[in-house]
Amino acid sequence: MSCTSCSTASNGKPGGCKSNGGCSTGGCNRMNTHDWLRNLPISDVSSTCKVMEVSFSQGTRKDFYRNPTLQPFEKGDLISVEGVSGFDVGEVSLTGEIVRLQLKKRNVKEDNPEMKKVLRVATDRDIDIWKQNKAREPEAVIRSRAIARQLKLDMKISQVEMQADGRKATFFYIADGRVDFRELIKVYASEFRVKVEMRQIGARQEAGKVGGIGSCGRELCCSTWLTDFKSVNTAAARYQNLSINQTKLSGQCGRLKCCLNYELDTYLDALQHFPDNCDVIQVTKGNAFLIKKDIFKNLMWYTLPDSNKQYPLTIERVRKIKSLNQQGVIPDELEPVEVVSGKPKEAEPEFVELVGQISLRSLDKAADKKRRQNQPGNQQRGQRPQQRQQGGQQQGGGQQRQQGGGQQRQQGGQQQRPSRNQQGGNQQRPNNPNRNNQQRPNNPNRNNQQRPDNPNQGKDK
Asked: Does residue 162 contact residue 135 with C-beta atoms inside 8 Å?
C-alpha cells in the first residue's frame, strides 16, 4: 500500500516517505481517491481544470485550492497554500480532470472567487516551521481538555490542528448539545497565542480521524472511504433478522455500525414478496405466532403456544391459511416443510500411514516377557531368575545351574544337571557315568583317559 520510499531505513526504523521525491501511490494518506483520469490526454490547455485537492494531517481534512499559474504538481508533493493571516503546508492528493468530479460531489463551484490559491512548492524553511508547529499538537490537546474541564463545559476536545506558520489553531470537539464556549475561546487564545477556531464534529467523524480496525478485521470505513454519514437505527437490524445486541451492533464510535445500511435495500426488496399481516394465524391447536422470516429460503417460522418448537412454512402455505382464516375456516395442521441443510457434511479423514505399516509386535513380546517374569510362581526367595530361550523350546522346566548369584541357564534342552546339595558346608557333585568314558578327539594321547571324581570341586569359593 505504500511507496518505495516508505521502506525500512538502515537504522531499523521505518523512515516514512515524507514526500521525498513525491508519492504517486498515495498509500500514506487516508480517504484517497483513485485518479482513473490520470492518463487522459490534454487537448486544450485553457480548458484544463485549474483546481487542486490538497490534504492536511494525513488526509483527515481535505480542501480545494486554485492553481492560477498552472504549475505542474504530482500527487504527494508538499506545497504552500494560503492560510489565515499566513500560509499552510499540505500534500497534493488530486490533480487534473478527476478534481472536477470531486467538486461536483461536494457541491463546490470551480469558479468560486473565495477559493484560496496555491502559493508555491514548500521550501525547506516552510517544512521546518510546519514540523515545529505540528509537534505542539499533542500537548495542546491535553492542555485544552484540562481547561474545558476547569470551566465545567460538557464537551470533549477530539483533535487540535495547528496551521503551518503557527498563527491559527482549529479545535475539533464533540458535544451532545450546544456549548457556550465564548469564555473558552478567550482562555485558549491567551494560552496558546494563536487565533482560535472551534469546529464541532460527530462521533463517527472522530472515529474517522482517529482510525482503527473494525470487528470485521479491516480498517474502519469512516477512515478509508466513507464520507457521507447516514443515520442508522435499530430498524435496519430488525429487517435483517439480527439480534438487538447493542454491544455487537455498535462500532468504535459508540454508535450503530454504518455497515448495517449496506445490505438493507436488498433485504427490503426481498421482503416485498412476503405476505403482510401474517403475524398470527389460526389452526386447530391454537394461534401460531410469527417468529422470523428467512428471505434466503422463502420460509416463515411460526411457533405454537403449547410448545417451543418452531415450524417453517412456505409463503404459499401461509397465504392459504390466512385466506382460510378470513373465510372462517380453521385448518387442522400447519403442514411445515422439512428444512434440509445445503451444506455438505464433511467426512472425517481416516488414519493414513504415510511412512508404511507400523508393527508393534516387538513391543508386545517384550511386555509379555516382563509380565511372565513378574509372576509369583517364577520367582524364588533370595534369587533373581534370568531366563534365556535357545531354539524356542523349554523342556521340564529348564536345566538350572546355580552359581553364587543364582543365575539359571538352559543347555541343549536334553541334559539336566541336578542341583547342588550342601552337606556339612561342602557341596559334592555326584558321579556321572556318561562322562567317565568320554573321549577327547582332539588329543590322541588322552583317548581312554577318564576324568576322576573331584570331591572338592563343588565347594563355594
From this structure: no
Alpha carbons 182 and 176: distance in angstroms, whole number: 18
Evaluate whether 290 touches 271 at the Cβ level (below 8 Å): no
Write down the pTM of the prediction. 0.60
Question: What is the per-residue pLDDT for 25?
Answer: 53
Residue that has been written with the C-alpha cell 565347594 in this structure: 459
pLDDT per residue as tens digits for the range 207-247: 988 888 998 999 999 888 888 888 899 999 988 888 888 88
- Interior CA angle at 413 toward 412 and 418, to 5°? 100
Give which of 384, 383, 389 is closest to 369, Cα–Cα: 389
Rounded to the nearest 10°, the torsion over CA 200, 128, 29, 36 is: 110
- Is the pLDDT at 189 greater than 50? The verdict is yes
Closest CA to 325 of 298, 287, 273: 287
Q: What is the enclosing helix (H) or strand (E) of 300?
A: strand 299-303
Length of the chain: 461
State the greatest distance between any 2 C-alpha atoms of the chain, in Å, as a whole number. Answer: 143
Q: How far apart are CA 454 and CA 432, in angstroms?
A: 12
Query: Which architecture does CATH list for 132-201?
Result: 2-Layer Sandwich (3.30)
Q: Residue 311 has which C-alpha cell?
A: 415450524
The number of beta carbons lying within 10 Å of the beta carbon of residue 382 is: 6
Domain ranges of the chain: 4-9+19-121, 132-201, 208-271, 280-326
Rounded Cα distance, 89 and 82, in Å? 9
Query: Please, are residues 22 and 76 in contact by the beta-carbon 8 Å criterion?
Result: yes
Task: For the beta carbon of residue 330, count every other beta carbon within 10 angstroms.
Answer: 14
Residue 435's Cα: distance from chain center in Å?
Answer: 87
37 pLDDT band, cuts 50/70/90, is: confident
For residue 349, what are the contacts with CB-CB under 8 A and spacing of at least 6?
A: none
List the grid coordinates of 309.
418448537
51-83 pLDDT per residue, tens: 999 999 888 889 999 998 888 888 888 999 998
Q: In the beta sheet, which residues pair with residue 82? A: 87
* pLDDT on residue 161: 93
Mean pLDDT along residues 124-147: 93
Find where cell 451492533 sits.
249
Q: What cell does 77 get? A: 508533493
Average pLDDT, the chain: 77
